[in-house]
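Dear U.,

For the methods section draft, I wanted the exact inputs and outputs in one place so we can describe them consistently. I've listed the two proteins in the order they'll appear in the manuscript figures. Please don't edit the token lines directly; just add comments below if something needs changing.

First protein:
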Amino acid sequence: MDEDNEHQIGYKALPRGVPVYTNDGVEVGRVHRVQDNEREHIFDGIVVTTKNGRVFIDAPEVARITASRVTLTIDAEEAQDLPTHRGFRGTLETHAKRTGRRWKRRLGR
């Protein structure tokens, strides 16, 4: 089946290991996992395993998701500049920054 004729699927149904392609047809890597904001049901992005490690692809850079491939809105050159996924450590840092900003707002600083 041609990739343009494949049915799109929801991000929650995206299986691990599906290839990820840029809009010019270059394979970036394979899906490691989907990141979402579970409480608000918002698609945040995809963590992709590449030959150089894991990278994070933000939701606006994802054009199409099917059961057999993910197509991005960026080209191969832009894909080389994707940020490294920092894993659990990155998550802890993000939560710490958010908590700090909340306390600053509460204390009026």
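Second protein (the one for the lower panel):
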Amino acid sequence: MMRIVQTAGWIECRRIDLYRTASAKSGIAEEKEMSDTASTGGRVYSERHDHILKIVIDNPAKKNSFSPEMMKQLSEAMTALHRDDTLWVGVLCANGSDFTAGLDMPKFFGPTATPTELPEDWIDPFGLRNQARKPIVTAVQGICFTVGIEIALAGDIVVAGDDSRFCQMESKRGIAPLGGAHFRYITRAGWGNAMYHLFLCDEFKAQEAYRIGLVQEVVPAGQQIERAMEIANIIASNAPLGIQITKEAARKFIEASEQAAITYVPKIRDRVLKSADAAEGIKSFVERRQAKFQGQ
């Protein structure tokens, strides 16, 4: 069995530990955040449309932030897509005005968090341990931050509403984006564009994401899901085995370099997660001030 979002958890569990420490020192009660979070449910559900599996993130009251149960449901839906020979294409989308603000950290790593395990042969939503053999078209809108970008890039095609906002902000908080962004930005956008946004930790819009290749189409806000379904239907009109073999063969081209980037993470993660800068990043966030990093 695998702990839910194990790869992203390398970063997020350390972040929540730092958050607790900083909150205690700043006199900020974590219990209120925990109770607020607990009062709001969320789910990931799927709908079958002929040969297309539409997978929907549904937690709009929390900007579609993921709970452990939601991440398990996402993995389960992707696994169903992967295994069912009568499903040929997946569409990943979200209800509400935002795609996702990321992980609901207290639910993953807070004092009342309950670990959720995934079977080893289920599909990893971050595409680090494995990936679905069927094509996945992702529709995003509004906020698409951190792990939201990494999940979208673990798929194949991204359609963005023109109100989409992207930000890979981990290094702003003293840590690093090691859930797939550290190599998929490069394969999608090229070294210069990747480093530009990973180093600046800036927020950028749909047109910039399209310019650098993170997004394949930009449509008026509210039309992104419809367009993703249209693309999925076009893909599904082609020979399914031909499409699956195309994806399998194409992945062989980048597989070795991706695996090298994935296996290197355990060697470097503690250098950033246990650093003084990581502690300062979270402390400054809690205290709502500019971080003062020392490179230590």
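Candidate sentences for the figure legend, describing the second protein: The first strand starts at residue 2 and ends at 3. Residues 85 and 101 are 33 Å apart (CA to CA).

Thanks,
Y.
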